[in-house]
Known about the structure:
By secondary structure, the chain is an alpha+beta fold. The protein has seven helices and 30 strands. It has helices spanning 5-20, 40-59, 154-164, 233-236, 339-353, 361-367, 439-442, and strands at 26-30, 70-76, 82-88, 93-100, 107-109, 115-117, 139-140, 179-183, 186-199, 202-216, 223-225, 241-245, 259-263, 275-280, 295-297, 299-304, 307-308, 326-328, 335-337, 358-359, 372-374, 381-385, 387-391, 396-398, 405-409, 412-415, 417-418, 435-437, 445-450, 455-460.
Amino acid sequence: xxxxLPLLLLLLLLLLxxxxxxxxxxxxxxQTPLPPHPDPLHRLAALASASYFRASLLKNPHRRSSPPSxxxxxxxxxxxxxxxxxxxxxxxxxxxxxxxxGSHVTxxxxxxxxxxxxxxxxxxxxxxxxxPRSSSSAALVGCRNPRCLWIHSADFLRSRxxxxxxxxxxxxxxxxxxxxxIYGSGSTAGLxxxxxxxxxxxxxxxxxxxxxxxxxRQPAGGIAGFGRGAPSLPSQLGLRRFSYCxxxxxxxxxxxERGSVVLDPPKQDSSSGLSFTPFLNNSAAGAGSPFSVYxxxxxxxxxxxxKKVKIPxxxxxxxxxxxGGVIVDSGTTFTYMASKVFDPVLAAFVDRVAGxxxxxxxxxxxxxxxxxxxxxxxxxxVELPELAFRFKGGAEMRLPMENYFxxxxxxxxxLTVISDGDDVATADVAxxxxxxxxxxxxxxxxxxxxxxxxxxxxxxxxxxxx
Length: 466
Ligand SMILES: *[C@@H]1O[C@H](CO)[C@@H](O)[C@H](O)[C@H]1NC(C)=O
Ligand SMILES: *[C@@H]1O[C@H](CO)[C@@H](O)[C@H](O)[C@H]1NC(C)=O
Ligand SMILES: *[C@@H]1O[C@H](CO)[C@@H](O)[C@H](O)[C@H]1NC(C)=O
Ligand SMILES: *[C@@H]1O[C@H](CO)[C@@H](O)[C@H](O)[C@H]1NC(C)=O
Ligand SMILES: *[C@@H]1O[C@H](CO)[C@@H](O)[C@H](O)[C@H]1NC(C)=O
């Protein structure tokens, strides 16, 4: 129908003009996201608080403690993380481990006397610990094994290994001394062992994994350390890449709905719709620094409603002692922003929403999230400003509304970003990354950690595998 062509062109032009005008960009938020919960406000508060503790852990890690293409399903948990199954030992014993790109030691609940205080357990399921005695391939890491240096300093080991060879001392004969990993408010302790690791039909002998006998405030099943550095699972397995796809906003322990994690996925480039941004080195932090475990990216700009938020650029890059900068983390639930980043973002949202919805401080107090807005009760569509991140290399993440706003109740929505709260000691989060991009914001994205080419790739897609 050639006669309609000019009209179509005109319409297209109008659309283009409309799209590029400077009007704030708003997106609709539809009510449905979180599954039913007896006390939704309490759940949000719990997730906010878990994110806060996670931020304080990533910002203040105590890595060295004093003595004392294979695809798998990825399951969401009520504690705000995602787990997948790994098999250890001969014959294999399968356990769920938290997928954690913010730490690098892999450990699992181990021995029949494993004790876990205040640990998050997937509802209704108790996890059977790994039993080294039932495995023919389990071996302790020796005191002089270079892998013992992954968790202890050389200085400490010089004296300690001699003592460990003394049968009367408290460590098993010539074994690497026990580790104690401290994660924010939680911790885990045990012995390093070598064990055969099985993942989706592939086996890797002599994988170094922590056999934890005591933990506090940890996921019930242990942690798979996907961070940077020699001890991490990707390094030990020699992976060139890994990727994950997190299903949408269901921290509900429902095993029937899952996303996926892939080790060594095929090479992909921007022709597959992925946007890439290089990983940055936090060189000031140095090789031994706990910050060297994190995946830093160059976040250049945060935009709210299509308008760039004024943020001191320096805070988005690590400073001369390694503080600041932006990391991507699968183990954090809600994105964390230090106040100097968060305050202007908060102000931008408040400014953009003004006149449309009232701010609800009551909801903010109840959930620990800011800002919250009162919306018409049981509204099916709520218009809120778009949140976008622009990264080094041109990659842009324009988040769908569901990845940063949540219905706190039938008449209110809250931004799912946390910052330095006044209810917790602010000193706790003074150092470390200024922004931690959490898993809530990454849902329904395919996220590729291209280790070979040192870059992060992402694209929006549905992650649900039924
Ligand atoms: C072994 O440890 C015991 C107790 O600490 C000590 O008395 C003994 O001298 C040690 N033996 C050696 C060979 O170091
Ligand atoms: C695993 O380590 C043990 C002890 O260090 C060694 O004897 C064995 O050859 C190793 N196995 C493989 C497959 O590397
Ligand atoms: C980061 O460090 C690695 C290894 O230390 C090096 O190969 C790489 O070139 C560095 N990247 C940048 C962007 O400086
Ligand atoms: C905001 O609050 C004021 C005062 O309580 C009220 O009059 C107004 O209708 C509210 N506006 C909206 C959009 O809910
Ligand atoms: C909103 O929906 C809930 C649950 O469906 C219902 O109990 C409540 O009465 C509704 N509120 C209003 C103001 O319609």
